[in-house]
Amino acid sequence: MPKFVLLAIVTLLLCGCASQWVKNRATAEDFSSANAACTDISENKYPVKNKVAQRTNYVKTAERCKKGEDCGGKKYQTTERPETQSYVMDVNSDSRYDEFYRCMTGKGWQQEMRWL
Questions:
Q1: Any idea which of 74-78, 101-105, 110-114 has the lowest mean pLDDT?
Q2: According to the lineage, what is the superkingdom (predicted)?
Q3: How many other CB atoms are found less than 10 A from the CB of residue 107?
Q4: Per-residue three-class SS string for the chain
Q5: CA 5 to CA 3: how far, in whole Å?
Q6: Residue spans per domain, the chain
Q7: Nearest-CA neighbor of 106 among 27, 28, 21, 25?
C-alpha cells in the first residue's frame, strides 16, 4: 500500500495544467491576429518598465564561541543576520497582462485551464 500512495503522490506532482485561449468557430489565424493585436495594445499602453527592488533575507551564520561566553556547551553558536538583495522587476507586468486579458475577452476569446 505505501508504494501505491508514493506512486500516486509522484504522479500528481508531475501533472500540471496550462491555460489556453478558446473561441467557438475560430481558426488559428483568428487567434494569431487577436493575439498580435492585443499584445501590441497591451505593450503600447504598459511598456516594460524595469525598476530595482530590494528585499531583506536573514542568513544563518555560525560563529565560534569566545572564551568565557556561554554557548550551551557547544563550540559554535548560530546567529541570523540581515542581508539586503537587489533585483530587477518589471513594474508594469501585471497591468500589461490585465490589459491583454481584457482585450482578448473583448474579442470573444475565453481562457480555459487544460490538464497536461
A1: 74-78
A2: Bacteria
A3: 17
A4: CHHHHHHHHHHHHHCCEEEEEECCCCCHHHHHHHHHHHHHHHHHHCCCCEEEEEEEEEEEEEEECCCCCCCCCCCEEEEEEEEEEEEEEECCHHHHHHHHHHHHHHCCCEEEEEEC
A5: 5
A6: 17-115
A7: 21
Counting Cα atoms < 13 Å in the Cβ hemisphere of 44 gives: 7
Pairing verdict, β 76-90 and 110-115: unpaired
Global pTM? Answer: 0.65
Distance between CA atoms of 94 and 113, rounded to whole angstroms? Answer: 19
Average pLDDT, rounded, for the chain: 87
